[in-house]
Amino acid sequence: MVSRRSVPVRKLSLDKRLKTFEEVVLGYTESEALEEAKRCLKCKLEPCSKACPLNIDIAKFVEYIKERRFKKALEVILEKNPFPAITGRVCPQEVLCQRDCTLRKLGDPLAIGKLERFLGDYQIENNIMDLKVPEKVKGKVAIVGSGPAGLMGAVELRKLGYEVTIFEALHEAGGVMVYGIPEFRLPRRVLRFYINYVKKLGVNIVLDSVIGKIFTIEELLRDYDAVLLATGAGTPKFLNIPGEELNGVYSANEFLIRINLMKAYKFPYYDTPIKLGKRIAVVGGGNTAMDVSRIALRLGVEEVIVLYRRTEAEMPARREEVENAKEEGVKFMLLTQPIALIGDENGWVRKVKCIKMKLGKPDASGRRRPIPIPGSEFDVEVDNVVIAIGAEVNKLIQRTTPDLKVDRKGHVIVDEYGRTSIERVYAAGDVVTGAATVIEALAAAKKVAHTIHRDLHGGD
Amino acid sequence: MFKILSNHIIAPEIRKIEIYAPEIAKRAKAGQFVVIRVDERGERIPLTLVDWNPNKGSITLVFQEVGVTTKKLGRVKKGKYILDVIGPLGNPTEVKNYGTIVGVGGGVGNACLLPVMREFKRAGNYTVSMIGARTSELLILEDELSEVSDELYIATDDGSRGYKGFVTDLLKRFLERRRPDLVYAVGPTIMMKVVSSITKPYGVKTIVSLNPIMVDGTGMCGACRVIVGGKLRFACIDGPEFDGHQVNFDALMNRLRMYKEEEELALSLLEKSIKR
Ligand SMILES: Cc1cc2nc3c(=O)[nH]c(=O)nc-3n(C[C@H](O)[C@H](O)[C@H](O)COP(=O)(O)OP(=O)(O)OC[C@H]3O[C@@H](n4cnc5c(N)ncnc54)[C@H](O)[C@@H]3O)c2cc1C
Ligand SMILES: Cc1cc2nc3c(=O)[nH]c(=O)nc-3n(C[C@H](O)[C@H](O)[C@H](O)COP(=O)(O)OP(=O)(O)OC[C@H]3O[C@@H](n4cnc5c(N)ncnc54)[C@H](O)[C@@H]3O)c2cc1C
Ligand code: FES
Known about the structure:
- By secondary structure, chain A is α/β, with parallel strands linked by helices.
- Chain A folds into three domains: 10-125, Alpha-helical ferredoxin (Fumarate Reductase Iron-sulfur Protein, Chain B, domain 2); 139-234 and 393-457, FAD/NAD(P)-binding domain (3-Layer(bba) Sandwich); 236-391, FAD/NAD(P)-binding domain (3-Layer(bba) Sandwich).
- Chain A has helices spanning 14-17, 30-37, 47-51, 58-66, 70-78, 84-90, 112-125, 148-159, 176-179, 188-200, 217-223, 252-261, 287-298, 319-328, 396-400, 430-433, 438-457, and strands spanning 139-144, 162-167, 204-206, 226-229, 235-236, 249-251, 279-283, 303-307, 331-333, 336-343, 349-362, 368-372, 378-381, 384-387, 391-392, 425-427.
- By secondary structure, chain B is an alpha/beta fold.
- The radius of gyration of chain B is 18 Å and the shape is globular.
- The model of chain B has no long low-confidence stretch (mean pLDDT 96).
- One flavin-adenine dinucleotide (FAD) binds next to helix 8, helix 13, helix 15, helix 16 and helix 17 of chain A.
């Protein structure tokens, strides 16, 4: 008889969590993985693989886990996804592979993410890297951006026989995975393992290079056969309400960059400061808002309040992170929209003026649209506000590349194969879709790598 | 890693540094800046491109040692390296023939004025430079500025060189008699604010080069946001130059104060460690 419940995953104890940036979810042990794998029903229809953007053969790797053939199981994943220790940790499995799992009819779906992560960790522990690349060089490709899309594009193109150079604007590679997602969700040793893997494959990663400034796309096209834009959606949005210029107000990106990239939590040992008081309001309901809130608690902020304009059911954050945030003590004020930030005589933010919302008819995103309730204004007292309402595409490249067609929101327009309006220039990831997920960026980049190969060499 | 080719004191607490950065040297334009990081624990700070030499592959920066990063940079000797130099960032100055241009500089801003006036001159403008400092010792790049200026005026707060008083007083007097086509100001925020308020009643187009706190310098964080014409703009990608008559300077000055205590703490710790 199959158990209705998944094997629960061990987590760091609450008191330890709030004092460190150590990873919270500890992952399955071998015996836990075996036990969970046994729950798989091996359905013929494989709804899990179908829902995976990379079509990983899930039933097959789970079967190998059952047989304790972990290396084999890992190889099944690596055929499709070079970064299992990352995706196993950050994918929103509840809306992808685990969504249509037959076991849900009984109770919990199979914990596919946890099993993937188990194999990813097995890979890192045993330093397993697939370094086979064709000897003959078929051409040269420049990739702009070293986030998930850029790294995936690089791996795939290397394996197809191309010489690849990644240009990255920041002083570290990894995109959102290095500057955005905190260490307690994605330890840097995991990211380092994969960056190192990409380098070992022979990919040249050039840091500190802002394309559009140091080299234009036109210049890159002179030196490379193709250019892949994987620049993400990294420009923070503001609410456009009064008071956002006040001190004490951060965009989520600034907050996260100061912490994750510049290590402001170690100030003054590290030189970059961050200035937080006792009570902070975080505006938004996505992964970013959860990450900011949980970091703030670890930095000693006493009260963290998430202000979100819809209800919990509409929050775009991964389910697991909302639960973790609640466990750690993050408070939620739902159906609440800020309408102004109010400062003191020193120009420091002190209050968020809010209005209550109710849900109306579904909007374009399929979620019910929030509508303000007249006369329901109220103030929340704060020492800081972090605005985590999303990010948009950076206009920097566009400005020096007038021929590059973008839509109203600045997303690069591509055909179904990832080709942009400029010949030999391709795009994948958040720069095309707007802020999305790691796995979608990986899947898109993989597809585009094959388009590039096809366009340059008629390969498939 | 970027090699330091030279590092000199040119006035008390003001240094001129030359860095090997050939790709930046090839592409730099007047009005742009770089972001630098000295070492692994270092902060990222913006500094204006004052000069560049594509043949030698070098860029020149001039900076005032005001805090931890600038002090650390000041201590990197010739032949040694700093970790990161990112650029050229920001939009270049729009250089064309306007007619007569008055450039106003204050403090280390005089260095930032130099490349801009040089390009204005090259484009055929009649260039008038007004430079100010607290005292004569702190007046920098006077000769270089004089070379690219048809007229050069000097003001010091203590009267040890030129006019005794603020450089903005010189501008006020100038405007009483003559009408330039453009005023360009770079220096302390308060100076740029005063310049803009002086030129406004005359309706003279005024460009200011803003210096908010930055982190990435590429439009990713919004730390550099300023209010221009009532709207939030990012100085690193929308600027750093803006129409002075549209800038909310008070908001900018407030933002520049945000980390005052942290800056003082970090500086005192650095100074202790240097002494030890
Ligand atoms: C805080 C946070 C938490 C998240 N959590 C999750 C999660 O749990 N699960 C999940 O699936 N997704 C999550 N996401 C979303 C996910 O991280 C993104 O969808 C994904 O990283 C997109 O990948 P990308 O490669 O397209 O872009 P990015 O990861 O944004 O990488 C783009 C890279 O390009 C560089 N770049 C930009 N412009 C230039 C230029 N002009 N020249 C050179 N380089 C340039 C940038 O510096 C950056 O390194 C999260 C996002 C954030 C912000
Ligand atoms: C586009 C741009 C170009 C710049 N060009 C130059 C330049 O060519 N030469 C130069 O000396 N400086 C320049 N600045 C200012 C320079 O970036 C700061 O002086 C530097 O960041 C200080 O760092 P610190 O760690 O040494 O000092 P901190 O400890 O950070 O600060 C010490 C003192 O400097 C003030 N300060 C901090 N940041 C700034 C800032 N961005 N602008 C003005 N004052 C600040 C603080 O309020 C404090 O009083 C520029 C700034 C910008 C935005
Ligand atoms: S410095 Fe980060 S957006 Fe301008």
